[in-house]
Write a structure and sequence with these properties.
This protein has 4 helices and no strands. By secondary structure, the chain is an all-alpha fold.
């Protein structure tokens, strides 16, 4: 995450310098990069949750049948657990993206 944001900052370095000269505040410069990080985190979290859902439906559902492997017999993931896990992944992804974006932009603006 941090690498992506730093790359975006370096690509737009000239624009950032112009905004500083014109008088833009650090928050005005920082917000687009934070939003970009949040969008990447949302996409990653949705893909991760989708992967969990597919694994639950296809793999665990298939192996939890009574006539399948004894190792997976009786193992089921409840929908509440799946929703909680998706929310947890989303929350962690958003927190990491906001923190990473803030660190990257702050380092660039202070330099």
């Amino acid at each position: 995450m941090l690498t992506n944001i730093v790359s975006a900052i370096r690509n737009r370095g000239r624009e950032i310098e112009i905004m500083k000269v014109v008088g833009a505040t650090n928050w005005f410069i920082r917000i687009p990069f934070m939003l970009e990080g949040i969008m990447q985190a949302l996409l990653g979290a949705v893909l991760a949750w989708g992967g969990l859902y597919v694994i639950d439906q296809r793999v665990i559902g298939r192996f939890s049948q009574p006539d399948s492997l004894e190792l997976m017999a009786g193992f089921q993931v409840e929908s509440d657990e799946l929703i909680f896990t998706g929310g947890l992944v989303l929350g962690i992804a958003l927190a990491v993206s906001v923190i990473g974006s803030s660190i990257a932009v702050t380092r660039y603006l202070d330099a």
